[in-house]
Amino acid sequence: MRSLDKMAGRRYSGYIVPMCDKMVAKREPKTTFDRLLTRLLEGMVVPFIGAGVSYEAKHRGGITDLTITSKMQNRVFEALKEKCASQKCCKSCVVKKEVCNGGSRDKPNISFDKVCELWEWSCSENHQIETCRRFELIYDILKIPEFANVEPTDAHYYIAFLAREGLIDEVITTNYDTCMEQAYCNTFGLKYPLMGDDSPALVIDTLSEYRDKAGRQFTSGPKPRRCLKVYKINGCAGKLPPKQDHVQNGQCKCKSILLTERDLQHWRHRSWARDLFRDRMRSRTLLFSGFGSDEPQVRFTVMQVCEEFALQEKDSTQSGTNSNDEIWTKPNAPFIAAYGNELTLSQTQILHAFAHYSNASISPKDLNANSFLGSDIEFFDSKDSSGTQVLEADIFWKRVFQAAFWRLLREECRRDGAAASFLSLSLPCASALMVEVLDWLAPENNSGFNFGRFPEMLDLKEGERRVIPLMRWVERVRGIQPEVKEGLYSNLIENSVLIMIVLMLIYLLLLNDSYEPNNDITWQLLNNMIGDKDGPLGLYIDTSHIFSGANIRLYIIHRDVASYLPQKILWSEDKKISTAIQIVVGNWQASTRRIWLVNKKNDDIKVVTVRQISFLQLLGHAHNVREAKKTFHDNLRRTFILTDEGRRRVRLRTEPL
């Protein structure tokens, strides 16, 4: 990403953009973050993601630095140098002067769009049409079709999780890759790309697709799924045909990818994209993330829309100057998540144009009021010890998702919510108990827990196969599949009762001897006490502190799975067990069953007793929270007063006749 020009000011589009070496002395990112969360929970935010979000994306075939803008820029520059060096008769060529500069220039100092423009101006042995030049640029130099084989980053997944919660319904991107749509499909357990109308990720990069898809909210397949619109304003690598088929019916597909400065300034044939961007700038909250390089079509369109605001202000009967607080609390005020410690020139222009044309007083500090900088890393990641002061897109979107998740869960657990309705039928103090659980997991008004007591519970880096731990636990409760698919996500809209009960059970099982919350437990200890490797028995919780000395293993399982408990289960001898208990989520008649635990060779069998009891039965009908917690533990202990030590079975008790 490009850094700010260190000048006192530079004139753009009729006004001066103020700059300084230190943009702001002291920042309060929490105020800005809370304002962003409010917009997000209102459904107002539209992410505008740029190259920075895909910076760490890895190619499945091992191609390195494929999507990094600076590397792409360098590849085009080197190809131009090689081409110009071979042209001996073009001493007056402007391209050769820009690129070679007498042979003294080793690195490009021109933007990516401009170097692509120079490529289109350069000489070509094939003088048929300029399409040939772009074909070589797209397929051979930049390898843009390979962008469709790039894996989603963590940031793409966190945005997809927010979309699954209904907080985001569309994304605008200048990227060519297919990471956003892949991540969204993966959250459903679907393989991208899907054929037909059953794909929940709607990629839109042409006017005809805009007409067909922009109004859709759910898929039309047998199982309706919430759609996410992904607007590719610069084109989509997934739409490019293989190299040998790039010309179909005499039409070259290379022009569908916007590359040059001329393409970007005029939006080429994407007037629908320009109008879309204008409308979202007027009516929604655009959140620019991974966007720091020069995108002329974006900057110029922002300024045009902001000029409309200024004309409206002059035509209206209202007069006066907006204060800084007023301007950034407007429902369409943009946000910018920057990578470095300062805003780039393009980012500064967007915020400055919005404030300037809204008749607000402008200072460097005011411009940072709706931005997140690298210096805010202490707020987003207090454990960061690198000292680099950069805010990566993965960290930023992780924290946005985590904070939003806990707020959504608290909203789902209100008195008229599904979870309260389910539990209140058997537990009069259900609402109060849920509040206590949430106050422990995500304390409000506590700066030390902005993203929950255990943010790792919602962290992809703590999970397996790109699945956050909480979702892995939930899937183990309600399913018997040996593995969870990559990126799978269970949203609160559809699963709030199950998710809340799983968290409540974990909380109840971790209470100390006085039935009070265990505030000293760390994530490492918590994670070690929970296991999802025991297959169809459910989610394992270590309760050795409750049943001291007894080889009792406790599990949480959904009632739909409890009824299909298999008779034989593969088991490791390292796991000591005499009796198992399954706390069943849902209405369930207490029962006792016996299962066979076998080794891999199926020649060593142990029989154990499985006691199944409903979560609601364990709670009883307590009228206050303390009584409910005590009743839960007392009932749990009584369930296992009689335990079966089990014994090895002898396969042959008699000699064969």
Write a structural description:
Helices cover 38% and strands 12% of the residues. It is built from 24 helices and 18 strands. It has 657 residues and is of the alpha/beta class. It folds into three domains: 9-23 and 30-59 and 150-242 and 254-380, no CATH class; 69-142, no CATH class; 413-639, no CATH class. The longest helix has 20 residues, at 296-315. Strand 12 and strand 13 (539-541) form a beta hairpin.
Nutshell version of this structure?
With 657 residues, the protein is an alpha/beta fold. It is built from 24 helices and 18 strands.
Output the keywords.
alpha/beta; 657 residues; SIR2-like domain-containing protein; disordered N terminus; 3 domains; 24 helices; DHS-like_NAD/FAD-binding_dom; seven-stranded parallel β-sheet; single chain; 12% strand
How is the secondary structure organized here?
Blueprint lengths: L8 E4 L2 E4 L10 H13 L3 E5 L19 H18 L7 H6 L12 H10 L9 H11 L12 H11 L5 E4 L5 H9 L13 E4 L2 H7 L14 E5 L14 E2 L2 E2 L8 H6 L4 H13 L1 E5 L6 H20 L8 H5 L6 E3 L7 H13 L6 H4 L3 E2 L4 H4 L12 H20 L5 H7 L5 H12 L27 H10 L13 H18 L13 H7 E2 L7 E3 L10 E7 H4 L5 E3 L8 E7 L5 E8 L6 E10 H5 L5 H15 L18
Parallel strand pairs: 3-4, 3-9, 4-6, 5-6, 9-10, 10-11, 14-16, 15-17, 16-18
Antiparallel strand pairs: 1-2, 7-8, 12-13, 13-14, 17-18
**Distinct helical segment count:** 24
Sketch the major β-sheet: 7 strands, parallel
By secondary-structure content and strand pairing, the structural class works out as alpha/beta
Average residue-wise pLDDT: 83
Query: What is the rounded distance between the termini?
Result: 83 Å
Low-pLDDT ranges: 1-25, 642-657
Helix-residue proportion: 25-40%
Task: Give the total of domains.
Answer: 3
Large-scale geometry? globular
Oligomer: single chain
